[in-house]
Structures are given as C-alpha cells and as structure tokens.
Task: structure prediction
Amino acid sequence: MSYHEKSATELLAPLNVDPDRPSRVDIAAAMAGVRRKRRYTFTAAGAAAVALAGGTAFGGALAFDRSQPAPEPLPVCVATELPMGKYSSVQVTAADPTGRYIAGRANPIAGMKSALIVWHDNTIAEIVKRDKLVITDFDTRGVGVGFEINGSRAYVYRNGALTPLKGDRVEARAINEAGVIVGASISNSARRPVRWASATADPEPLPMPAGVTGALAVDLAEDGTIVGRTDDHGGYLWLPDGTHRPIAPPEIGGTPAYGFEPRRLRGGWVYGEASFPDGAVKDQSEARAGDVPFRYQIATGRYERLPVNDGRPAVHVGNRLIPLPGDTNESREYNHVVRTFSADDRAFAGDNHGLTSDDPFHPMSWRCE
Result:
C-alpha cells in the first residue's frame, strides 16, 4: 500500500497540523506547457556503492552478513514534475499501488486555504476545493480515503466526489483492494486504531496494546495485516488470524532503541525508523539525530538496518537505497522527500522544496524500469 512514506518526519503525522512553510514563489507560469522529464542511468558499479550499508539483526541485535550475492544493477528511472495548476506549492500525500493515481495538497501552509489535487498518469484529473482535506491512500481503481486535518470527518473519494465515512472525529489512513479501510478515532486528544470493513461500515475499534493510551493504524496489506504505531513510539501489528502483538525495537551494539515507528508495509516487511540514545549510533554520518532506518520481517521477527538518505532523492527497495533523479533545475538546491511507493517498487511520488521556509513544494513522480 502507499502511504506517505516519509513525510517530513513521519508518514502523515506532519499533516495533522498545517506546515509553517509560507510559499511566496509563483511558479505556475514556469510550469505551463509541457512537463519536463529527465532520464538518468545508474550502473551496476553504482549499485555496489549504495547496497547493504547496514546488516541483518536477529533477536534485536545487529549482525553483518558478508555472504550476500552481488546486488542487481540499478534501474533506469525517469523523473516527472507534476503539474500544479494555478497553485505555487503542492505537497504529495498519497498514491495507489500502481503509482498512476497520486494526490496532493495545494497550499499546505498555515493560514492559506488549501485544495486537493488528484493526478492520473501524471496529468491533473481533479481539483477539489476543500480546505484542510488530505487524501492518504488510493486503491488501483482510484478510490481514495482521507480526512480533514481538524480531525472532524473521514472521507472516501471517488471521481471528484467525497462521501463521509461513518464515525465522528475519525481519520482514514489506508485502503486495500478489498475495500477495507484503517485509521483512527480521536477522543480527548488520544487516538484509537479502527478498521472499516467497507466504505459503508461502522468503524470497529482494534485491540489496544496493554498500558498504551493511544495508537494509530498507518498501513494495510492485501491479506488484512495492519501495522500501526503507538503513542510511546512503538510499532504494533494486527494479524489476519485475529492476533495482535507489539514490534520489539531493534538494537545496535546491545543498546535497544527507544522504539520503532512504522511508515509502510511491503511484501511482509515493515519499513520504519528507530530512535536511539545519544552515543548508541557511532556512525552519526549515517543517522540524523539518532534516527536510523530499519525494516522488520513479520514472519521471522528479524531486523535489517537500512542505509540513510542524505536529502537527495532516493528510496529503500528491499535493503538497498536506490538513487532517483532530482529536480531538473540543478542551479537550485533541494531537499527531496519520497512519500509513496508502488506495490512493485517501480513507481514513486513525493516532492522537493528549497532550504528556506519561503520555498514552495514541487510535486514529482518517478518511474523506474
């Protein structure tokens, strides 16, 4: 499933409040006309430089495996700047498992009236002028789910129309091909994970971890597996057989992480980040503020530590960090955030923005072959 892969700091958590990046640059005129594309080719030698910067962790401890076969050559990827209509700043929020449907929030800035933009095959399909609405996921038919940032309602999106989901003060975060939806209900500022069996069903509370006052379901697999995170920065699983359990945090050098925060679920693996105490991460060049990317295998309970992105466009595919082409204007420096991932890890979407708060968000998509 998609889900904001990493938003500035989490999948969709940054959308719970309005970003504080005012946009004063009008690039609508610059975006008129044809979309610009650029092709980059990466060689197998380049693959070795980014492959397996980490290792494999068994029972929470990290161990390096030097018996891995040589990585496959990196794919050829094309970057496309998504059109923004009349808007000067658009932040990507969702995509479907094929990468053909993408959603973004125009004017994601405090004090400005926002709007919903939906792209299909990299062209604008719909613009819905609905303030503070965020679409968080699509199925392959282009049926989307989302919620109002003020936490009042959740919605199903179809062909430009919005239908409220049942439940008051709810958030819809993910949908699968069977039409099952997961998210959270909000009570007294605390979230409780919920599941809708369909777009017309009532929300069903999911079991809460013992001793935890709040939790949120963030992604959903086709087999019904649900992954979420708790308010104490832990990961949690709800499995198709009705069982549920926490995700034990990883360790580095015998030091356990404070917790593991899942971002997305893909192929039986949970991708996320772990925060460690000061000094636990020796190679600080590979971790910002002690946050280290990992992936967790549900079937075995083992972790693999992943390479850290330095702000250039890149994605974790398996246990490799795959570079992506950046903005076509190389005279400007950007931070890139890849927020959505296709089911086959060949299509991605996200945005770039400059290094100051005055810079707008520029939505982008990538296709790799």
